[in-house]
Amino acid sequence: xxxxxxxxxxxxxxxxxxxxxxxxxxxxxxxxxxxxxxxxxxxxxxxxxxxxxxxxxxxxxxxxxxxxxxxxxxxxxxxxxxxxxxxxxxxxxxxxxxxxxxxxxxxxxxxxxxxxxxxxxxxxxxxxxxxxxxxxxxxxxxxxxxxxxxxxxxxxxxxxxxxxxxxxxxxxxxxxxxxxxxxxxxxxxxxxxxxxxxxxxxxxxxxxxxxxxxxxxxxxxxx
Length: 223
Ligand SMILES: O=C(O)c1ccccc1N[C@@H]1O[C@H](COP(=O)(O)O)[C@@H](O)[C@H]1O
Fold this sequence. Notes:
Layout: E1 9-13, H1 18-26, E2 31-35, H2 46-53, E3 61-66, H3 71-81, E4 85-88, H4 94-98, E5 104-109, H5 117-123, E6 129-133, E7 160-163, H6 171-178, E8 182-185, E9 190-192, E10 195-196, H7 198-214, H8 217-222
Parallel strand pairs: 1-2, 1-8, 2-3, 3-4, 4-5, 5-6, 6-7, 7-8
Antiparallel strand pairs: 9-10
Helix pairs in contact: 2-3, 6-7
This protein binds the ligand O=C(O)c1ccccc1N[C@@H]1O[C@H](COP(=O)(O)O)[C@@H](O)[C@H]1O.
């Protein structure tokens, strides 16, 4: 991909407080994630997410994150929260993921041997993109652990978001090494699960933008 003028998209995930959502939007984040996965310490009720959605700035995606939630649970979130993007971390198949009529990201667990890219494409033809996270299939995401970025297949046929253990300290390297479409972070910008740290959020965005200027000589000249 020609990365001149390219800007790595940033998603911050696992919000529980409207003030954190407002600050993330002011920092220029592209997506705000709300977690509905049962095992997560960041899990919120649809009613809470609905209230927090009001804090989103225009043109910022509200992302609803699930991990093997039931059809009715996802439907209820879609109805109440009106997310613009869904993110599935579990064993959901393409038919399930696309049945809500919204674009979705399917998580690829990088904690084990991954499917060949052409097979991923065949399994999830309806996915808007993939999200590469460090856990193994069946384990929870949001682990705060990185994986070996050199294992990312070169020929993924859709845009991908890089996740797993990203922090302000490694965001620059992550973007320059992996050149993802987007980065997604939860624990690396927190004081504790669900409680975001304003300074970490700001430094994370700064580091991604610094990397965007660095990855292409022409872009660097413009930055
Ligand atoms: O954030 C969670 O609690 C969570 C729970 C279940 C599945 C995914 C979860 N979060 C996602 O996990 C990755 C990486 O998170 P981290 O930065 O390593 O903490 C990211 O996509 C989160 O959206």
